[in-house]
């Protein structure tokens, strides 16, 4: 892929999803951190249903530590891996109070030290809560990046992130992250991508395969119809 092709793909996705944004509901950096932690292997839709009541009950790190672990587990039990996530939340809150006066740190290297916070979560927090350009690679971003040739099929998540950072102008990192998620979530889905209605099929590994298969089937289907 050359820079001209990359620019065309980015501009096309931008036209398709001009209003792409973070779909996790939150009102401050702390809520966003908790929401992203909960979103691992879980849909944003489910997380938003849980946090609608969770964020009314728990406002500050102190609130999460004021209840038994079992109570917090029950409050998030609709979330996948809720037991581990409840432990991470309480440990995270304890560290925030101990090291950062209860505030979520702005620095990426400090965020990844928090329990339950990996590189992806830290990227989401710094970009959405603090306005620092970052590309968080979730399952949608990884899938789309590999299909469209921004990254190799066997690249790790970190390699995908680094290659996107090289291809995409820094000031566009955060918005591109959101647009790639929308593109993957609503158009280029894992199981049923909308290849027939996609303006990027010629640039897409998966699209080329699927369209080639579709074209090869058409003559056989016509033969069957002719015999009937």
From TrEMBL:
EC code: 4.2.99.18
Its BP terms in the Gene Ontology are: base-excision repair, AP site formation
Show where the HhH-GPD domain sits: 38-186
Pfam family of this protein, just one? EndIII_4Fe-2S
Reaction(s) catalysed by this chain, per the record, are: 2'-deoxyribonucleotide-(2'-deoxyribose 5'-phosphate)-2'-deoxyribonucleotide-DNA = a 3'-end 2'-deoxyribonucleotide-(2,3-dehydro-2,3-deoxyribose 5'-phosphate)-DNA + a 5'-end 5'-phospho-2'-deoxyribonucleoside-DNA + H(+)
* Record's compositionally biased regions (Basic residues): 206-219
Alphabetical keyword list: 4Fe-4S, DNA damage, DNA repair, DNA-binding, Endonuclease, Glycosidase, Hydrolase, Iron, Iron-sulfur, Lyase, Metal-binding, Nuclease
| Cofactor dependence | [4Fe-4S] cluster
Q: Where is this region: Disordered?
A: 206-228
Binding positions for [4Fe-4S] cluster? 188, 195, 198, 204
> In which domain of life is the source organism classified?
Bacteria
* Assigned protein family: Belongs to the Nth/MutY family.
Cited function: DNA repair enzyme that has both DNA N-glycosylase activity and AP-lyase activity. The DNA N-glycosylase activity releases various damaged pyrimidines from DNA by cleaving the N-glycosidic bond, leaving an AP (apurinic/apyrimidinic) site. The AP-lyase activity cleaves the phosphodiester bond 3' to the AP site by a beta-elimination, leaving a 3'-terminal unsaturated sugar and a product with a terminal 5'-phosphate.
Question: What is this protein identified as?
Answer: Endonuclease III
